[in-house]
């Protein structure tokens, strides 16, 4: 792909859209694509769960800090 990039005399680079359209991009078989998507969905779900747990822990830590501050001030 980089061999198809044209550089102008003032230094800007350009890739002709027709050359880009004709560029062969290898793709895995559809079954492999589906397996990849399924794995990504599984990982995204785990990430969502982790984010929720972290958020809950942060809220708990904030409440604890507020309770401690109130107890010290009393």
Characterise the protein shown here.
- The protein has 74 residues and is mainly α.
- The protein has one domain.
- The chain is 66% helix and 5% strand.
- It contains two helices and two strands.
- A two-stranded antiparallel ribbon has the order 1-2.
- The longest helix is centred in the last third of the chain and has 44 residues, at 30-73.
- The protein is elongated, with a radius of gyration of 26 Å.
- 0% of the residues are buried.
- The mean pLDDT is 92.
Write down the domain tally: 1
**Low-confidence stretches at least 5 residues in length (pLDDT < 50)?**
none
Oligomer classification: single chain
Which range best describes the helical content: under 10%, 10-25%, 25-40%, 40-55%, 55-70% or over 70%? Answer: 55-70%
Strand content: 5-15%
Structural class by secondary-structure content: mainly alpha
* Largest sheet features: 2 strands, antiparallel
How many beta-strand segments? 2
Radius of gyration: 26 Å
Q: Please report the number of helical segments.
A: 2
Overall shape: elongated
Distance between the termini: 69 Å
Order of helices and strands: EEHH
């Amino acid at each position: 792909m980089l061999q198809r990039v044209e550089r102008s005399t003032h230094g800007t680079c350009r890739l002709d859209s027709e050359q880009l359209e004709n560029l062969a991009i290898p793709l895995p078989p559809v079954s492999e694509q589906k397996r990849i998507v399924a794995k990504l969905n599984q990982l995204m779900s785990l990430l969502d769960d982790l984010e929720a747990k972290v958020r809950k822990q942060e809220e708990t830590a904030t409440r604890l800090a507020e309770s401690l501050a109130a107890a010290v001030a009393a």
